[in-house]
Amino acid sequence: MIVLKTARELNIMREAGRISAGALRVAGMAVEPGVTTGEIDKLAYDYIISQGAKPNFLHYHGYPATACISINDEVIHGIPSKSRVIREGDIVSIDLGACFEGYNGDNAATFACGDVSDEAKRLMDATRESLYEGIRMAIHGNRIGDISNAIQQYVETRGYSVVRDFVGHGVGASLHEAPEVPNFGKPGRGTRLVAGMTLAIEPMINVGTPNVKQLSDGWTIKTADGKLSAHFEHSIAITPEGPVILTLPD
Q1: What is the mean pLDDT of the chain?
Q2: What digits encode the pLDDT tens for the residues 115-124?
Q3: Within 13 A of 165's CA, how many CA atoms are on the CB side?
Q4: Which of 204, 247, 250 is nearest to 229 (CA)?
Q5: Is the pLDDT score of 174 beyond 90?
Q6: What is the dihedral of CA 177, 155, 30, 52, to 10 degrees?
Q7: What domain count does the chain have?
Q8: The domain spanning residue 214 has which CATH number?
Q9: If you write DSSP's letter for every residue of 99-163 in order, what string do you get?
Q10: For residue 205, with 0-12 CB atoms within 10 Å meaning exposed, 13-18 middle and 19 or more buried, which class applies?
């Protein structure tokens, strides 16, 4: 069931989104050679707690950390560790969120560690822009497929592939709500968008095959061919005036 949000609920979600975005910014600024993913996770945790919120990924279905931190060919759900060291040239995807007064924010971005390859830069740029292409189609009266197709077309015309095993989703009082928001599909198909809907749009884009595999830790998802992947995400609200990004920092 899709839950439409009231004006009051949207205001709370703006605050949850602001905190989520602030935590992502703090985490991203810490991406440097020699830093561990565990250290970045602790920074994100401390920031969210300092804002009077709770990390919504922590213990979610048993997940053991505040953030998912995925490096290079890891697509999503990488588990932070005190022993996992980030190195020059890595690209680091960080996905996290905050729960504030019972409502959730959810956002992600991929960060460059120092000087990265041209291939990595192009992938990150295309993935980031595909997110905004999708958001531009998140208009009252459109359908989910319009978002999905905009992302897919932008990515595939640039020679990249869209992960199909994982998709975006509704967000609100629950971290994952209906409807699903695939990053591929046909325009004019799927659930109609109406004011009050809140969505987490999150393209996961690979250099090579769209196929992925799960590691033995039960969480980490990697590309099947070992090539790079990038991930960007915003939580948004559908309004009569157009899409509003909820996960914006101060």
Answers
A1: 98
A2: 999 999 999 9
A3: 13
A4: 204
A5: yes
A6: -20
A7: 1
A8: 3.90.230.10
A9: EETTEE--EEEEEE-SS--HHHHHHHHHHHHHHHHHHHT--TT-BHHHHHHHHHHHHHTTT-EE-
A10: buried
